[in-house]
Amino acid sequence: MLESIILSLIGGLTLFLYALNYLSDSLKAVTGERMQFYLNKFTGNLFSGIASGTVITTLLDSSSAVIIMTIALVKSRALTFRQAIGIVMGANIGTTISSQIIALDVGKYSSVLMAVGFLLLMLAKKRLPKNIGRVLLGFGLIFFGLYVMEESVAPLRQSPRFAHWMQALENPLKGVGIGALVTLIIQSSSATVSMIIALGAKKLITITAGIAVMLGAELGTCSDTLLASIGRSRQAVKTGIFHLLFNVISIIVALILFNPFVQLVSAISGNAPLERQIANAHVLFNCIGVVLFIPVVPLAERLLNQLIREKQTIRQAA
């Protein structure tokens, strides 16, 4: 039984990760160069930058893709580090939209989206309907991959060993560690949060453990953006480090106030299903983190500017 569960889970996860990349590429094809134009146009101040990062991440369904694209734009001097700060913070909010959609339990209808998308892709003559077909097919594959993961873990309800392991994740530090490790391996916080939601849908994880692993996913997702900043300009490196700093501080605050945060999620969610409560926790954590961090942004910006100076500034100082 264990072998079939693992194989099904790997299959569903692989399909989910492929669908995420496929959907991101498809949406980039629809938006084209306009995405870069809007990023540059609507990031005049911190709040417009946060709004832009939220909207674009919602569209692309990948905070990592948006932040990596932002780092590339900062390197090419199309964006400044100050503009990038708002986009990074907004990307953390935008990525929570997908968890809300996933918690709707739309996996059973994924075949409809895949069928409509495939027909548009194959039969449409014009570019726009074909691109819409790609987007629908991508969403359908995401939901189907999630559905496969949900069904694959269902037999684990009868496993005392698995139940004992999941209870251990109620320790916030252990949960954060596991969430960070899984995200580091699969390079997708969305996939990690989706797996937590899938476990919640089958009542295989508690809200406490789910929130702890979710916090770990937010830490693990910093790895790919840090890698993307290696060898880039000083401004681009500061963007990658700001993402890490923002997430680490938010996670530390959440761990300090872990029990009150869990109670807040439960109070807001009411009698909602467990998967919905986990999705709500994802939204609350990122939104509260952005709101609390806004007053600290000028200090963080000055600190990073001091620590990572431009080469010209160093010569002048010498």
Automatic annotation (TrEMBL):
Protein name: Na/Pi cotransporter family protein
Transmembrane spans: 5-24, 44-72, 109-124, 131-149, 176-199, 241-261, 281-300
GO terms under cellular component: plasma membrane
InterPro entries linked to this entry: Na/Pi_transpt
GO molecular function terms attached to this record: sodium:phosphate symporter activity
Keyword Cell cycle in annotation: no
Keywords assigned: Cell membrane, Membrane, Transmembrane, Transmembrane helix
Matches recorded under Pfam families: Na_Pi_cotrans
Organism: Adhaeribacter arboris
Membrane topology: Multi-pass membrane protein
GO BP of this protein: sodium-dependent phosphate transport
Localization, UniProt: Cell membrane
